[in-house]
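User: Hello! My lab partner asked me to get a predicted holo structure for this protein. The small molecule is zinc ion, SMILES included with the sequence. Please write out the structure tokens.
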Amino acid sequence: MNFLYILSEDDNDDIFYKGCIENLTGKSFNLIPRRIRKGGGISQVRRHIPYLLSDIKYTGKVENTFFVIALDNDRSPAHPDHKRLTEIDKLPKREQRKDCRFCEIQKITYKYLGSKDKWPLKGAIAVPVQMIESWLLLISKSEEYENESELPIFARKDSSLAKDYFAPKKPPSQLKDLCETEKKRLNITSSRNFFIHCAKRIASSDIHKSSNSFSLFKEQVKVWFNK
Ligand SMILES: [Zn+2]
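Assistant: Hello! Below are the structure tokens for the protein in complex with zinc ion.
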């Protein structure tokens, strides 16, 4: 059996990442969840990473334990090209000031564990553009979206962020709204089951082509079992 630390915002996120990794590697994992406060962004990760990484550091070198640090991109400049959104001036100032979350997480990881070849455990950083729900939609509705850049950028159409951005028009459905519709269409009753459904379909989906942020994650996981 393998073990998997996941630092994420949500139980359902854990279920998705675990299922996704099992699908990509063909191995089973026991989950060791570590939680960050929802919507706390990079500051929450910055606060919790040291605890996770010091645990990992003192576990010593082990072959069967892995880690994932996951945070939604939430309209930050996306790794690795760091392009900002085209209509970024329609976002509040605090949104415009966001830095690349992947780079930030990587920097903190290097600070605690040293360069990648010195890490006692293999790990991966996941920063879905713009949220994990974007990945779910690209997997579940691959016939509709060719690229993650075609997807909405907000969580909900009734959020003040979306309302201000689209004013004076009414915002169209956003990522979580679209996931709700998709869940209903598939007759899936809980979010948890929708996350499991999508994780199962990873291997047969084209998400590695439609999502740069996913393919970045996949590349890191792919080498876990290489000697
Ligand atoms: Zn970056």
